[in-house]
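Dear colleague,

Following up on yesterday's call, I've attached the two folding results inline so they're easy to grep. Please treat them as preliminary; we haven't cross-checked anything against experimental data yet. The first protein's sequence and structure tokens come first.
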Amino acid sequence: MRQEPAAAKQEPTAATQDAAAAKPAAKPAPERSPEAPARPSGAAALLRRLGRLIATHPFTTGLTALILVLALATGPIHGPHRPLRVWLGVGPDQLLDGHWWSPVTAVLFTNNLAELIVVLVLTVLLVGASEQLMGAWRTALAFVATSVAGIAAGVGIQLIGSQTGEMWARNVHHLVVLDVFTGIAGTIMTASAFAGAFWRRRIRVITMLVAIMYLLYSGDPSDLYRLLAVLAGFGLGVLLRPHERLLGWRRSSHHEVRVLLASAVTISALGPVIGLLSQSRYGMLSPIGLLFSNDVPATGSVLERCQAFAVTRDCVHDLTLERINGFGPVLISVLPLLALLVAAYGLLRGRRFAVWLAVSVNALLAVLSGLYFGILPFADARPTVSPRYWEVTLSLALSALVPATMAVLLIVYRRHFTVRATARSVRRYALTIAFTGLGLIALYILVGWLQKDTGFTRPIDLTDLFNDVLERFIPVSFLRREPLQYLPTTPLATVVYHNIGTVFWLVVILAAIPFMVGGGAWRRPVGDAARVRALLERGGGDAISFMATWPGNSYWFDPATGGAVAYRVVGRVALTTGAPFGADPAAHDGIIERFARFCDDSGWIPTFYSVDAEYQPVFDRMGWSTMTVAEETVIRPQQWATTGKKWQDVRTSINRAQRAGIRAEWTSFGALPLSAAVQLSDISEQWVAEKDLPEMGFTLGGLDELRDPAVRLMLAVDESGRIEGVTSWLPSYRDGHVVGWTLDFMRRRPGSINGVMEFLIAEAATRMKEDGVEFMSLSAAPLAHTAGTPDDEKSGMDRVLGYLSTSLEPVYGFRSLLKFKQKFQPELHPLMMAYPDPVALPSIGVGLVRAYLPDLSMRQAAALAVGRG
């Protein structure tokens, strides 16, 4: 029941007519004369649309044309040649020689044809999107200002580094930079200040991550300039839009945190590919690109030359390549990165298993870096680091710090990944990995022992095999400073030596895929999801029974009637999601009693939450206590009409929306085009970001719950296709047919016309009337109801929930939401909570808070306690 109370607010307006003015009948179009101009062809319409885009994006058009013309004039295939390149490009030497124009000209030229194509595409897409967000003059200012600021700051850092003898600055001092991406990155970062909360956060996080990864894995001066331009763009955006909230982190929904962390894991996994594609490889983490080289030196030729930390690029190159003579070593260096990509997909789907897989791989890479590069305290003793090579020490430290940081972030935000695997499936996975690893170790030692005299470059014994076997499972890049003891010489020894690690990592990845894409490995036993759907379609439930399909629920199936109860255990409290379903209502009394016995046997406190007051007799018979927690608002679509004085506000909203050209669209999430789905995410994220408390759960659905194919959406769409508001509707069934719909998700775009929510609900009621639907539930606002209890009769739980309702009202506005729903003259059906033992009320109260606010921090809880929630 994720709904937006603010939708109830309307500006004062003059009274409108009780009935909308009837539209005049459309006149038949006059017959077109033969001389009438023909309808424009598709090509002409396309040209007109292109002309409109050019007219509304003058800077993007001009910049794209300028880059293309300059590339054609100076050489599109290989870019400008010397000395023109030196005159146009930027670097420390150019600025010291007085080329003051170079920070501007350097971001207008490309280096080759492939780069030109990518630049033109990104200019049209990213700079065009920026111009759409902040206008032409701001976009032009951002492109020039961030480029100049980033390049000037970068060149300054290079000059300082060169003067102090820093190795990277000395190595890149002579390079001349031409890089349009610097201006593009700074521009899109500036434009992020003008985007909604949804895109603002994504643009900033992803742009920053990509810029940092390029600097770490490629390390060209252009990568430094680009990162600094991104930072300049952030500052410029704040200056151009000073009212943007700066302090604090705007809250994200579970869905958004999953997207951001999955993006971060993906970018960190693809970082080594940047090092591979980079020709210069000056980045601190670029050596992994060496794993794909074809030049293999003679065995043992460099073992004596290279010492830990006292390294050159040639030394690292040769030492790494001695271990890479074969497809297996190359593959084993890539497979951990592939495992991270698989984990990233699972993160998008909210899988907790994906969190721990990504944490495990990143932690392994961090520990291996620390061990083999001598950074961890318990690593083997290494020669003292020479001050001359402190940059190498920093590079090696970063190689451990990057994956370690990613692992820590995933652990900190793991609560956002709520879909958990069963303990049995996790144990099965762990045993599969363990037995595979042990079996491959045994195979390596057996083959090595059988060929100990002839299969390697020197005779070996069991001690050699045991000392070496674990290194067969490690990516080659982490062994480049480890002394190489021996290499295989026979075909059998070579196959085993180079490929047991590959087999192991393939098993790790393949065994993890079902956790990311399947449904059978999760806490719901195999077949439960399909069984629950079948029971829901059979009927016998209430308006919120469909919420049983949401993540986080467990199920108890009654063996006597075949009905079911959806519940979740929070601490010692088993909170149900409504009443039983899937059985004849006459059998619900027995189901309730048997479920209570099941909970008691399990050591839980059974608590029926948000059940209809008609169950009061059964709870009285069981000796349980009850209290009203909400009121369901029900409309009968077959009696729907908006005539009379009481409906004045609703009619006003309908007329206002129609005059604004807004139409209602009844659809599902799966049927939406990508642009519409993105708009829904944007609206949702802006709503979540404005709250001072986390997104609520339990009986309140979010963006993820909209994706169910059975859920219907009613959208308010204007003439340009912009979505102004959205409501979602959960089905209620009887004998396989939908007999009712329940309102859940309800949000509107900030700045949309007042009354858009009233318009959507009225349109939904009209649609349901046409479809013959029996009831339309506007659901219940949690912790809000009109039934008053005298103070002297209130129980302790009444007071606790009343205090909680008062504390949450400024943030979530449940009482305002109930008042809003009363505009539609609904039937009010009390919903109650039933519990067996009043002594357990403190535990039940804590369980309810944790169910609705599972991510509530101690600081936020303290704010609630003092009434600032």
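Below is the second protein, in the same order (sequence, then structure):
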Amino acid sequence: MAPSDFAKANIPELVAQLTTDEAIQLCAGVGFWHTHAIPRLGVPAIKVSDGPNGIRGNHFLMGTPAKCLPASTALGSTWDPALVYQVGLKLLAPEAKLRAASVILAPTCNIQRNPLGGRSFESFSEDSYLSGLITAAYINGVQAGGIGATVKHFVGNDKENDRMAYDSIMSQRALREVYLMPFMLAEKLAKPWAYMTAYNRLNGTHMSENPEILQKILRDEWKSEAMVMSDWFGVYSVDLSIKAGLDLEMPGVNKWRSLDLVNRSIGSRKLTQRVIKERAKKVLELVQKCAIGAPDILDGDGIERTLESDEDKELMRNVAAQSIVLLKNDNGLLPLNAAKLKKVAIIGGNAKAKILSGGGSAALRSSYFVSPYQGIVDALSSNPAVEVTYSEGARAYLTSPSLDDDLFTEDGLPGWTGSWHAHENDDSMSALPDPFKTERMDETRMFISTSSPKGITKRWTLKLRGHLLPREKDTPFEFGLLSAGRAKLFIDGDLLIDNWTRQRRGDAFFGCGSEEEYGTFNLKAGVTHQILVEFVNVRGPADGDEDEPVMDSNPGVRLGGAEVRDSDELLSEAVALAKEADLVIAVVGLNADWETEGNDRTTLALPGRTDELIEKVVAANPNTVVVTESGSSILMPWVNKVQALVHSWYLGNATGSAIADVLFGNVNPGGKLSLTFPNAEEHIPSFGHFHSENGQVRYAEDLFVGYKHFHHRNIKPLFAFGHGLSYTTFDLSDLQVSKPVVSASDVELTVSLQVTNTGSIAGSEVAQVYVTLPKTSVLTHPPLQLKGFAKVRLEPGKSEVVNITLDKYAVSYWEERFSTWVVEKGEYGLRVGPSSDQLALQASFTLDRGLEWRGL
């Protein structure tokens, strides 16, 4: 029987036929990425794969080259659910099929409570409504392509430090109106096939064992049919998580749900066979959806493949460009005219760097990449007379830059040669002299995870040998080495860095890595220096932590390096180039070291001397365009001195092409900020109570998240939520509100307005509708809440009437005393405009009666 025949299986009959052991096996994964097969009953295994900005496949180490899409904050900034649907249908679902994956572990729709959160780039917005609609579009697109979506992290995972343990303490109103709302909208509008629980506690109980959320709300109240899985290693008990409604523990490595432990729990009457089979049934239902949605995956050979079509590349480039936000454009400096430029200086640490996305499980190996520098140079190629100069200006990296392009093997191929050595036995630290396996490896950041050779001993050694590309002149070069395990770096046979004998604990490789250790070596002109890194997957002792555990699931090693440069000289070089140019394009920002799963940022400031670089370059040449790259908010103390400012997020493979499209006017920017950029960290709503203190994170800002806080406290942000300029101009007028219709279970009214392109080129505008609840309410509510929006594209001089329908979600709040949604009768305010701080159109409407409701 073919695996796809499971599409026709009778699930209740299958559940009845399951032995207890088979049911237990279905409730936990196999390896890192698969569910359990039951061959006796024709139940196939299914494979899942990480998203959210692309489908990585099975391996972190030398993974299958993949499409890296714009980060979620970028997708949120399109304010275009129809476009995000196309991303899901035409890019993500086909990419999952190429990876032989039936389910993707995405999208993430947690709230950007604080931009310091390490995974803020993975979520769509600080606003629940925008996040919910973009999430639903993403899911609908993916699942229309026959691939399951897993909405995550359910719920309250809004920071990274202490993420396995901290307790998100919030009011029921905040939980319902802010943090559950994107999931609720996704369930209502898209019916995701799966949910993934968060690592953290919520009001005292870990999410993977939280029956209040998993059973009472998700299943009983929302009537969800989804399968619920844990985040990886996010299960902390046997019986509690099973009884709470967690169907699948992932991964199958070091799992709680072993046959022995679960059977012991059944024998001690902590669990029953019935509840085990209830959990197994949900897994079988997901497998059947996969068999129906993409039978070719289950019947396929399981080999991961890469395929790039011109159509795919064009869509990726368009999506990236549509997400870019034009923050400032004084004196019409943009768009640029390549034909009129004579000398362009490209400056900044991000201009040539390979920055695709934030770090962690979102990271993948890109099938191609266009840097901002290359994209700009390509755009300028139409003018053969233009001269382009470049300077890094200021170092922006946290860990030493990759050496992927600097090493080659004995055979002259890119990369280095890795020889895997088994040890004398599983407990030995002595590597055998003869290699267990030898292969060429073309990465210098190597998160090995579970990709060590099959059959090798539990402890093993990896020796990496390569040749460094020769330099044209004598060059002092600083190497950096970090590892999850122990590592040593030898240059020409001499030990340069010892990250083996004693270590300093760090955050790399999902919190298992060391701090980076450095060593400087003088590279000789024309000399091919020999590089050797020895790595063993056993962590070394450190001050305060003398344990030496085997890294059985998270081993990794990273070698980086850069030419030693004096920071003053770098700045002076950039300023000199700026003075000589008629235009400067400065590309600065963050990268996957600063914004990553596993740890939070400590500041909103740009790295190192970046701010000083911008100040000095702009002083030297006012014709400076600044392009910023980050996945969330950053500070810009120089903003009033800059004429043109473009925020590009993390844009994936097509980064440079998309940036150039906007800078040179091939694309008229239409992105709008999906989160507020504050003037100071102290202005963030959760300032002072964002960090885990004795395991508790108090959501003291309550309902006032993001722009709601800025309106409530009358604080002017750097750039407001929803802000985004265009190369044309628009007029919003003629606001009309229909008479509301209140039924026993819903409310309906229509907001209409006219949008006119008053400029000279085609462009897009987003009409944003914000609602104010009645002032007669006895409860406190945010002064303005986004409850509707519409994106419209118009030719110059053209107008379009936009109709936006509001329903009960636009006028409801959670009544904690009675555990119900409430719509009060009374007068509601309505404000409409192109951003949350420009709401010139105002109206009101009256509900002559209220209602209460539950469910969706």
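For the second protein, one point worth flagging: The first helix runs from residue 11 to 17.

Best wishes,
A.L.
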